[in-house]
Protein 1
Amino acid sequence: MSDTGRQSFTDKATAAIKPDSEKSTTEHFGDKFKGKTDSAASTLQPESEKSTSQQVGDAFSSNSNENQPSLTQKAKNAMGLGGNTA
């Protein structure tokens, strides 16, 4: 379970699984906005205040803000499903 004020893991997984080619423009913008908002929340929330599940989720989604693609994005790219790395 994600921490309060953070994007749920289910929402992240759903957005990551659906191929970019099948997303509407609204979905693309929504995913980008939610991702940026969640990344900012990750940055602002001290590691010491994050639950264990949130720390794992942040590591999986690459919310360490080091401009590295997430594991999910790397997998999508490897399968030819990831149109962009943002």
Protein 2
Amino acid sequence: MVDSDDVPTEVVDDIDANGLGTAVIASIGSVALALYFYYVRGDKQRGQFVGLWPTTILAVASYFKLEEIRQKLDELDA
């Protein structure tokens, strides 16, 4: 296990620089689309369905980000 004091600052900066920006934008777009379907089009069922997408998008993006962090920490241990 790598101590947080032993992690090079380049690794931390690289992880911070590649945030979840694309996933956040997709989630915001999904919320906007859900509101459009629900209120503008009056299709409440489709609006609720699309409204469930943001949590899935963010969960998948978080999983891949955690895998990236794990791989970088494994490289430091090797």
Protein 3
Amino acid sequence: MNRGSWKIRIFIGLAIVAFAFIQKCSNTEENPYTGRSQHITMTSEQEIAIGLQSAPEMAQQHGGLYPDQRLQSFVASVGNKLVQNSIARETPYRYDFHLLADDQTINAFALPGGQCFITYALFSQLNEAQLAGVLGHEIGHVIGRHSAERIADSQTWQTATMGATVGAGDIGGIVGSIGQNTLLKNGRGDELESDELGVLFMIQSGYDPYEMIRVMEILKAAGGPNRVPEFQSTHPDPENRIEKIKEAIAKYQNQG
């Protein structure tokens, strides 16, 4: 490759990278429910649509819904109590709470737009207040728009990586690495934000927020000496979250 062609490739690559970050800045908005500035590229209606479309497949991956309608209704009642007593009721999202049949996998998760899930394996170890803590945490993910933020960040880094690859292969690898690390860091921040929101929703709904700490202890014990439960593998170590939860309890109880 001659020097002129190399310069052109570098210029094009840098232009694509610059475009990716300009686009990110132009799509930054303040979350009206958390006050945090976020890079978002979709509307709340699109989030709801994605969640509703994905929910059946996610349920199928965990053996479908748990067949006891009484327990399904109980999970829904606890989740809806949290929504009605918190800022969640003011959001445009459609909240649905699902108990999954999976009795082996310790897990709970939320899809964009309000679809929240908990496996029977985790549910069966919780009392009502602890269930409220888990569901409050998942509602926090929805309100925090964490999935939408991750999707937008992923799109930005894909564009940036493509631009760097055009300019020089080695740089592309570096940019790709930065992107992955940034996404992981944001994910840890998401969990802590959701923990804090979960504590707030528990207090507002009349649940003992210290039961959230007990949830962390249950998750840690579920891992045993060798096995890591799915919930823990996709979330920060429960031990590392307990201090932040204690801080959130002190913060919101003092406000009350």
Protein 4
Amino acid sequence: MNNPKRPKNTHAHYHAHIYFEEQTLLFAINLSEKIAQQFPLIVGRIHQKLVGPHTKWSFQVLFDHLAFDEFIAWLALNRGDLSVLVHAQTGDDLLDHTEHACWLGDSVAIDTSRF
């Protein structure tokens, strides 16, 4: 277990990337459906392949600073054992996925060579 930086509401816009594997796919699908039902947020597709700099299967949720506190608190309680990357959306992908990156659960390697 590692000790990554925890999310703080310091930017205008955010992405949450929720990581899963084959054995947690059903849990991830159910979680994405619950998010879509309970929050007026943009929930992305379930990717059963590597996408962009992400080294595990994932789906993303887009939200802003107004939804941050409620959504992150809910996600922290409902994510199970899944790791979640929460990062600012500033337009600088490298900084967003590194310096502006925070975690719920353990951190997951990010392939920064993709930027």
